[in-house]
């Protein structure tokens, strides 16, 4: 796109990364938001969303001059809603101008409009150019989350923000789709019109399906077993509007995109390759998204068999807990078919606060195992610290109070330690699953000829906890391995 000279208040078409141009308005950025160094860009608020971003000047076009061109090449529902929002804005603006024409000074003279300063590409202090009649972006409660990683000073409080798609292209070519507050009080998530299937209604899957339904997706569910309330969960979701699939093959054949979230590599393979498995329902164009935390080799195998039938494959394991799943605040790591990732955007917004696209299939599995390896090792160390405090006559509560005032303070540490002190090991993330992830991470390290001594030590502690019948308790039950 050709470089253009623009000013605060101009309507534009802004292009972000590989995504199509979107209508927006150049606005004044918050005072604490620095302009990216080395980039000639303007700060744009997009219509039809609560998205804001610095956009390079070569990625901007004047709105009116290119309106017909853009409408011809973009036909999506959300795009049309955004264009309608621009037209509504223009109508209101015209109405205000007509009303102001009849108002002047006491002698009947019209008050001339104060011209806006032309925005120079290299201006650093954009706040000086703010139109006094325009509400500063900083006051928009939907905006604080997006600013956290860009501001000099963090926001004093985290305001609820709407569920919006935010695309961030990085130098690594990885992409992040960010969203938050899955309750989407303002109903801002537009569900895909594709039929969604979901296999597996465990701790994580149940919360995911609930949020998909809340956001208006058409979902067909199936659960691997009727044990531990599986059949009851299906009934609950059917009451909420879900459809019931009889087999994985039936779900895959009925739906455009089928998600799976099960416990381990064997369960993931059986779901696809077993009797009445997903593979039997895959047809050309059907999408399969593996959300289970498994090893890269399993992902490669599943990707190959799905694509061999003409299907499209994406892996998308999730980082989080049962509570985060229920809240729709998971972090989704995706890899594989980029077009499937884009087709899943409304689903990922419903179930998570952020999703990352990491390239070829297998990369998400690797990253997830590394993350869970760190979390598992950290939890074992915290448990070790609590028991050592007790063994040396120190107050465990005081240890926790001090810990939560230091650099390692986090909601995770506070909640897990409080649960330990209260003897509450109700599963938020199964201990047996974190031990499985540690084992897989250690194996991955062996294959890469990379040492993982800390993970190996933690794995032994979790194995002891499993031997003490803690498998189906929360990962914090690793504490019990130190007191028996």
Give a description of the structure:
- The chain has 484 residues and is of the alpha/beta class.
- Strands 6, 7, 8, 9, 10, 11, 12, 13, 14, 15 and 16 form an 11-stranded mixed sheet that branches. The chain has a 5-stranded antiparallel sheet with strand order 4-3-2-1-5, covered by helices on one side.
- Strand 1 and strand 2 (22-26) form a beta hairpin.
- The model is unreliable at 105-187 (pLDDT under 50).
- The relative contact order is 0.08.
- It is globular.
- It is built from 16 helices and 16 strands.
In short:
The protein has 484 residues and is an alpha/beta fold.
Indicate the topology.
Blueprint (H helix, E strand, L loop, with lengths): L10 E4 L7 E5 L14 E6 L5 E5 L3 E3 H11 L3 H25 L42 H4 L18 E4 L5 E4 L17 E4 L3 H12 L4 E4 L7 H10 L3 E2 L3 H7 L2 E4 L4 H9 L13 E4 L5 H13 L3 E4 L2 E2 L2 H6 L2 E7 L1 H6 L1 H7 E6 L5 H29 L4 H8 L7 H12 L8 H17 L5 H15 L17
Parallel strand pairs: 8-9, 8-11, 9-10, 11-12, 12-13, 15-16
Antiparallel strand pairs: 1-2, 1-5, 2-3, 3-4, 6-7, 7-16, 13-15, 14-15
Helix pairs in contact: 12-14, 12-15, 12-16, 13-14, 15-16
